[in-house]
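Morning. Coffee machine broken again, so started the prediction first thing and wrote up yesterday's gels while waiting. Chain of 209 residues, entered below exactly as on the submission form.
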Amino acid sequence: MAEVLALIDYGAGNLHSVANALKAAGAPHVTVTANPDVVRAADRIVLPGVGSFKACAAGLWGIPHMVEGMTERVHVGGAPFLGICVGMQLLATRGLEHGETEGLDWIAGEVRLIERTDPAIKVPHMGWNDVSPGLHDPASGLVEAGEAYFLHSYHFAPDDGRTVAAMTDHGGGLVAAVARDNVVGVQFHPEKSQAYGLALLSRFLEWKP
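Came back before lunch.
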């Protein structure tokens, strides 16, 4: 029986593009859903996100029982989980965009504004940039070296460097991916990263953490 991948619709994601990219990467069954019961039964879960941390958190927590359903399926059921852009940032303990907002706290840390150490450095960080895998490889080879498309003004600063799966450089090091156990998050957009992004999604579909 084909695996079911739940792509969570909470009003804050580039759902059409992400769904198409997942299908192109080989996902046999992508279910776009706002139903926590569907999430509880899914084999894999993807949480996209575009916009501010505060607005995305409000959208996710605004769906009754969705956070509980995700938590149960991922932390108890062991389903592989991928967070994309703000979907990755929501893994943090808190976000500091438009005031302090509670995150999922699945990977301890906070989401902060990118500091401009050089006037030539533009914020938001937008466009193609290198992705360099972290030293500890917490994602078991899921995030490989390459170039990906970024669009963000805030960045994830984890408390534990061992959860950093990849870095990028934009006037200094920024976390490009985080991972812990069966949870991985990428700051870049795989659905906009052409062959590199599709290859990462394909590896996620095969990932057995």
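The mean pLDDT is 94. Going to sketch it on the whiteboard this afternoon.
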